[in-house]
Amino acid sequence: MIAMPKPDESVIARREQIAEDLAEIIPPAHVIYDEDERRAYETDGLTAYRQLPLIVVLPETTEQVAEILKYCQREKIKVVPRGAGTSLSGGSLPVADGIVLGLGKFNKVLKVNYDDRYAVVQPGVTNLGVTKAVQEEGFYYAPDPSSQIACSIGGNIAENSGGVHCLKYGLTTNNLLGIEFVTMSGEVMRFGGTGLDSPGYDLMGIITGSEGLLGVVTEVTVRILRSPAEARAVLIGFPTSEQAGDCVGRIIAAGIIPGGMEMMDKPAIHATEAFVNAGYPMDVEALLIVELDGPQAEVDHLIERVDAIAQEAGATYSRVSQDEDERATFWAGRKAAFPAVGRISPDYMCMDGTIPRAQLPLVLRKMTEFSEKYGLGIANVFHAGDGNLHPLILFDANKPGDLDKAEAFGADILKLCVDVGGVLTGEHGVGVEKRDLMPHMFTEDDLKQQQRVKCAFDPDQLLNPGKMFPVLHRCAELGKMHVSGGKLPFPDIPRF
Amino acid sequence: MADILKPESESQLADAINWAQSESVPLAVKGQGTKDGLGRPTQTRYTLDMTGFSGIDLYEPEELVLTAKAGTPIAEIQQALADKNQELRFEPGDLGRLYGHAPGGGTLGGLVAANWAGPRRIKDGAARDHVLGIKGVTGRGEFIKSGGRVVKNVSGYDLPKLITGAHGTLMAMTEITVKVLPAPEKIRTVLLIGLSAEDGRKAMSRALGSPHEVSGAAHVPATAAAMLGVDPVTRQGAAVTAIRVEGPGPSVEHRCAELIRELGGELGGATEELHTENSKAFWKALADLEPLVQQQDKLVWKISVAPTRGPALVDTLGLGDSLHWLDWGGGLIWLGLDGSDSRADAIRSTVDAAGGHATLIRAPEPTRAATEVFHPLPDPLMGLSRRTKEGFDPNGLLNPGRMYPGF
Question: Are B162 and B191 in the same domain?
Answer without folding.
Answer: no
